[in-house]
Amino acid sequence: MPKKMCCQMLMIAIFAPLILFLTRDTVTSTEEAKTVQGRPDIILIDLPPVPGGEKMPGVTFYHDLHTESVKKNDCSVCHVKEKDVFAFKFKRTQNTNTQTDMAIYHDNCIGCHVETSQKGNDSGPKEGECRACHTIKPTFTSTRTPIDFDRSLHFRHESSNTIDPEGNKEDVNCTACHHNYNKDTDKIFYAKGEESSCTYCHKAEKTKEASNLQTASHNACVACHLKVKTTFLDKKAGPVDCRGCHDPELQGEIKKMKEVPRLKRNQPDMTLLTGQDFSGKSPEVVKKALAKQMAPVPFDHKSHELKQESCKKCHHGSLENCNECHTLTGDKKGGDIRLEQVMHDMNSDRSCMGCHNESKRLPECAGCHVQMPAKPLADSSCTTCHAAPTENIAFETMDKKAMAELAQKVTEAKKTAFTRVPKEKIPEKVTIGFLSKTYEPSEFPHARIIKTLEAGIEKSTMASRFHEDGTTLCQGCHHNAPASEKVQACSSCHGSTTGVSDLRPALKAAYHGQCITCHEKMKMDKIAATDCTKCHKKKD
Amino acid sequence: MAITRRKFIGWIGAAAGATTLTAVNSHGASNKEFKGHPQSVGVLHDATRCIGCRLCEAACNTVNEMPAPDKPFDDLSVLDTLRRTTEKTHTVVNKFQPTAGGSPLFAKKQCNHCMEPACASACFVKAFQKDKTGAVSYDASLCVGCRYCMVACPFGIPTYEYDEPLTPRVLKCTMCLPLIREGKLPGCVEVCPREALIFGERSQLIKQARRRIQKFPDQYVDHIYGETEMGGTNWLYLSGVPFSEIGMREDLGTTSAPELTAGALSAVPMVVGLWPVFLTGAWAISRRKEKIAAEEKAKAIEETLNSAAEDTRKQLDDQRKKLTREKESAIAFEIKKALAEAQQKAEEELKAAAEQKAAAEKATEPVDQSTVPPEEDK
Fold this sequence. Notes:
The structure holds 2 protein chains of 2 kinds.
Chain A: H1 3-23, E1 38-39, E2 42-45, E3 59-62, H2 63-69, E4 81-82, E5 85-86, H3 98-118, H4 130-133, E6 141-142, H5 151-158, H6 174-177, E7 180-182, E8 187-189, H7 213-231, H8 242-246, H9 248-251, E9 270-273, H10 283-291, E10 297-300, H11 301-307, H12 322-325, H13 339-344, H14 352-359, H15 363-369, H16 400-413, E11 430-432, E12 442-444, H17 446-458, H18 461-466, H19 471-474, H20 507-521
Parallel strand pairs in A: 1-6
Antiparallel strand pairs in A: 2-3, 4-5, 7-8, 9-10, 11-12
Helix pairs in contact in A: 15-20
Chain B: H1 5-29, E1 41-46, H2 55-63, E2 92-96, E3 105-109, H3 118-122, E4 128-130, E5 136-138, H4 148-152, E6 159-160, E7 170-171, H5 177-181, H6 187-191, E8 197-201, H7 202-215, E9 235-238, H8 257-361
Parallel strand pairs in B: 1-9
Antiparallel strand pairs in B: 1-8, 2-3, 4-5, 6-7
Helix pairs in contact in B: 1-8
């Protein structure tokens, strides 16, 4: 090695780490966010590559742009019919091989573009303009949003006079969409009372037994909308273009019913959650089993059902009972998640406690609840839900009806629910003069605040159930004290100063913390937290 | 034994490697992980409690006897622009709109009083020093105004009195060190109406922060900013949203600035110490080489000269010998010739005499020729 080179390398070896050390933090990245317009109708046509062949980037196809330019609602321009229903593939019913499919696209797309432009109309790219379609930088990004077929939409379909499926004897249209699948005959059939959500079978990806959700819903929804639109000339028919269902803005314009009647699927009004199936078991066995477990939970299925947008909120895999999959001890079918876990998981919005906990974030609740520390499950009151007394009730027959009756009985017994603290026991006003050096004493409208909170609770059956005793309300502010009509003043715990090892704030911060947080969380924006004089006038 | 250049470079390389390695090792064995001065104090800023009232800014202004701001402290429109600390405001409260939506969030910004401050490590006159209390203090009488501290600070805190023509200072939050020494609270902490700022021993503050996170896991990001950032700071933060959303750097890592630069700086003595040796060596080698070359040259010249002289002498000798030989041979030849001539003459004389004798003999008796000896002298 030449001696000069050796020397240079030595220098580099000495200085390179030095330079790296010094420049380590000076590297900053700047990202420029570009705003690109979105469309809900983008379809990426990307055929699999021909083995050994070259691959062009996929074609970003704007579907609605094309439906607008061809004759209105005439799908036959691009789609062919299979068994009287349009197949939602371009000019074919099924994919064959890439070369054939590619030829179909090239011949028909370019052919139509040429034809259109010969007529003197605006048209798409023609032969030789490959990159106009096969572009890697499309002008638009996809804003396609899955549509939520909520209870309102469901009822509108269910009760529509236009749909009227063939051979339907009732005035509801269940048979139009719902079906079961018979593995042996490979045919679908309708089973009354077994209707389920589409997603239970039609998953995101195609399975052996069912097409994927996209294909299934397009085939069912679009085809039906089209039929209604063309055959019955009904202007109210659902959308047949992409944006009608998948544009996030247009979704907001879909008519929503204020009060949606219950779905008609034989679901119970009331039920008793016993944790396991006791049907056909002798009273002795039932009694013995129940003695070892928590008291059953009377569950008001009806009121819960009416508060949710869809059954899927709780019934995520099927409309069967929870304990079908989530058994007491856990089963593979339920992903080894025990019934106790699914009911009490605080981090799931599907579990009882998780969902109840979630609702504490509502403005009416958050004022008090956000200031309450996270409670471990063990500190929760079990009997609020596990309320069905097992001792006094004879479990002669553990059938659905008997259980529902028992649940009804227990719930009705609890209907008294929220009881207000007598007015005369609530001080009308409280004067807080702590900051009286700089400010006039603050007049705290004690009774008015309680009244507002009480109204918030009475609005909700759930809140009423969980605040049976009116004094629980006092605990919102008079926290860490037992629920009672006789409460301590704030200053009995909060001193004028506090230490760093003391989690309790000093009196000033305690007042400000509680008042400001509550105002913030209950969205009382009229009084800004920084507007001191709104609560206490400044001394002259 | 002679040192070759190749060997010398090899030694230098080995020495450099050894120095670097030992430097790192010794560093590792020393105070690499500085846990902060025991019982050092700090402040915990709970951003979830901050309402952006700017009372802390006002208190800071009063305590540090700074000039009145352009807009009064109760003018909250100031919060609409993102601000940084200046030589006239040692602390600022900034307003942030959370990405998840909802009401705006506020966060106070001031010197974080790093446990191992970058400003102090960058300061070569020790104008910045880490006080035992935990505050990073500044001595204007030592400051030379190089402003390396401003470059070094990862939080962009120290500011310079550019308007001061004669005695400009670098200014930043002092944690109200004079007040702390009197047993009082820092100005901002004292005035905060919601205890969004609490003062105390750093270790206690961390415990307090942990308990808050544990008690309200939904309301806090599970991280105490400043516990480990840049090797830890005495000013700690809690937030309900990722810290980057309230204008705090999340890319700083957990290594303190001095530790980050220690590796590079430990190479400095090596470079400074070894370079003269290395360069002198290189120079000496070149010198030696020149010397040797000169010597060799001289020797060669001498040798050439010597050999040339020898050759000449030899040639001369040869020449002389040759000449001598030629001369001798010429002489010999001449002698021979002369002898031959003399002999011939003698012979002729003898012949003549003999002929005469024979003629006479003829008359008398024959003469024996061989009995006449030839004259010889060589």
